[in-house]
Amino acid sequence: MEQVLKSLTLDFFGQGKHKISPEKFFETENGLLLDVRSKEESDSISIKLEHHTNVESLNIPTNEIPDRIDEIPKTKLIGVFCPANVRSAIVYAFLLSKGFSDVRVVDGGYSALTEALKPGQVLKVIKSKK
User: Fold this and answer.
1) Rounded mean pLDDT of the chain?
2) Cβ partners under 8 Å of residue 47, min gap 6
């Protein structure tokens, strides 16, 4: 964790290397949207991404990440999100400390994701696959 913290410099944050927009994330060829909200939050409002076949969605609450880390593939771009990006930032740093190299915090969190999944955006995805 010490090495991860040392790498998080002004240059790193200033260039936004830790973030990815929902739109850019959905363009990835092989992504995992990691929802770190509590089970209750996810049960209330979930994101399934059935029409985004290039991206999987997985809910692992922040407190369960250490015990369930083997469920998170190292071969995919991991986009971590929660409502305010506090838990996302914690999980982001934790995953980096565990050897995950392709991890980003979804910029804008849950609210930005819901904007990116409005009907017009979903329709674009469906039409692009026909």
Assistant:
1) 88
2) 33, 35, 57, 113, 117
d(CA 6, CA 111): 30
Q: The whole model's pTM is what? A: 0.87
Domains of the chain, each with CATH number or no CATH: 2-128 (3.40.250.10)
Which of 27, 18, 31, 23 shows the shortest CA–CA distance to 104? Answer: 18
How does pLDDT run across 77-102, given as a tens digit for each residue? 999 999 888 899 999 999 999 999 99
CA 122/CA 16 separation, integer angstroms: 26
Evaluate whether 18 touches 85 at the Cβ level (below 8 Å): no
